[in-house]
Specification:
Blueprint lengths: L1 E7 L3 E3 L9 H11 L3 E5 H5 L11 E5 L11 E3 L2 H7 L6 E3 L3 H7 L5 E7 L7 E2 L9 E6 L3 E3 L2 E10 L2
Parallel strand pairs: 1-6, 1-7, 3-4, 3-6, 4-5
Antiparallel strand pairs: 2-8, 7-11, 9-11, 10-11
The chain binds NADP nicotinamide-adenine-dinucleotide phosphate (NAP).
NADP nicotinamide-adenine-dinucleotide phosphate binds next to β1, β2, β3, α2 and α4.
């Protein structure tokens, strides 16, 4: 299992339930990585998807503690373990947010596909600082790219053996 995330310079990932700065190149990158695999995410992240709907073409596992929640096109899971079970037939499975789900499921992830956006907008949701962690190392890194004057780069962090 891997994680996919876009982080700002301060490891922020969101504010008020959404991402304050979104790059279309990052959206394309996200689609290419997640492909036809499975994605696991929290109910609040679902609210931020286009139309509040699950992502097409992928197996969607949505985490919620609510017992009255259902959404067409997604498997509703009441724990990280249930989400892992629900997606286990998929070779490619990605944890895609938000903060609470990343924090709980990062221990199950081998790689993090991370887009670094070189801006520091105010955020209220954060990703763990992988550079400050002994457990992770950068194994791939693109050159710095630019979209509409905003610098960004793609990184792969891999859990150390
Ligand atoms: N930059 C990025 O790549 C990226 C990606 C995704 C999201 N985000 C941002 O992250 C923010 C949202 O993060 P968040 O932490 O507030 O919300 P979240 O992780 O998306 O969803 C939280 C919800 O997930 C459910 N949940 C969490 N842990 C659970 C567990 N152990 N068992 C069952 N259900 C569980 C709960 O739903 P119930 O309340 O229904 O019980 C909880 O309220 C937004 O700002 C979003 O834009 C950024």
């Amino acid at each position: 299992m891997d994680a996919v995330v876009a982080v700002y310079e301060n490891w922020g990932i969101g504010r008020d339930g959404t991402q304050p700065v979104v790059l279309s190149a990052d959206r394309r990158h996200f689609r290419a990585i997640t492909g036809n695999g499975a994605v696991i995410y929290g109910r609040r992240t679902l609210l931020d998807f286009p139309g509040g709907k699950p992502l097409p073409g992928r197996c969607n596992a949505v985490l919620t503690r609510r017992t009255d929640f259902s959404v067409p096109g997604a498997i509703v899971c009441r724990s990280p373990q249930a989400a892992i079970l629900a997606t286990q037939e998929y070779e490619d499975c990605f944890v895609i947010g938000g903060e609470s789900v990343y924090r709980q499921m990062l221990p199950y992830c081998r790689r993090v596909f991370l887009t670094r956006i070189y801006l520091a907008p105010a955020c209220d949701a954060f990703f763990p600082d992988l550079d400050a962690s002994e457990a992770w190392e950068i194994t791939e890194q693109s050159e710095r790219l630019e979209e509409n004057g905003i610098s960004y780069a793609f990184f792969t962090y891999t859990r150390k053996e």
